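Run log // design_07
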């Protein structure tokens, strides 16, 4: 492939990732931040894993539905955030850390936003489940997809010098130090 074609494909791929990411975040915002008309509301759960224990006591089907829903709510972010970033040649651990951190911050923002929404309850366990879902999706999908795209001939990585400049363009000339006039 020619370099111009690769650059256009990367731009289209990133644009699709950003569009899907925004659509998913809008859907999650609508699902989690809309007011609910309920006759009563449970208290906020600020005890870690208390909600998960309560879900497990309801039986396997209800527990699977509750815990699975928490895992799946933000799981697409584990794939969409790296796609929107558009990097093929990046450390897998750095990518995982960046994606999980962004996913947990988005989950925290949703939980904090729910404090002012009628009918919605803050649950610290959903923060844990959402973050675990982002991490699982990232680990299961992103490294394999990146390896496949690299084999197909994705754009080569840019060589960056220690100073953060691209080595292919050469270094910027520097001016020697001049002492102060007396």
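design_07 sequence
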């Amino acid at each position: 492939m020619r370099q111009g074609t690769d650059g256009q494909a990367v731009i289209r791929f990133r644009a699709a990732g950003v569009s899907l990411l925004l659509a998913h975040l809008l859907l999650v915002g609508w699902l989690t931040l809309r007011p609910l008309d309920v006759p009563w509301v449970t208290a906020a759960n600020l005890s870690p894993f208390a909600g998960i224990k309560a879900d497990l006591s309801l039986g396997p089907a209800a527990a699977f539905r509750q815990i699975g829903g928490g895992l799946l709510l933000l799981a697409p972010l584990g794939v969409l955030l790296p796609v929107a970033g558009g990097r093929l040649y990046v450390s897998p651990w750095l990518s995982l850390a960046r994606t999980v951190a962004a996913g947990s911050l988005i989950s925290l923002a949703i939980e904090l936003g729910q404090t002012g929404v009628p009918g919605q309850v803050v649950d610290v366990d959903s923060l844990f489940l959402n973050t675990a879902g982002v991490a699982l999706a990232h680990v299961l999908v992103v490294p394999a997809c990146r390896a496949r795209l690299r084999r197909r001939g994705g754009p080569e990585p840019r060589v960056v010098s220690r100073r953060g400049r691209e080595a292919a363009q050469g270094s910027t000339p520097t001016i020697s130090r001049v002492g102060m006039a007396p």
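The mean pLDDT is 85.
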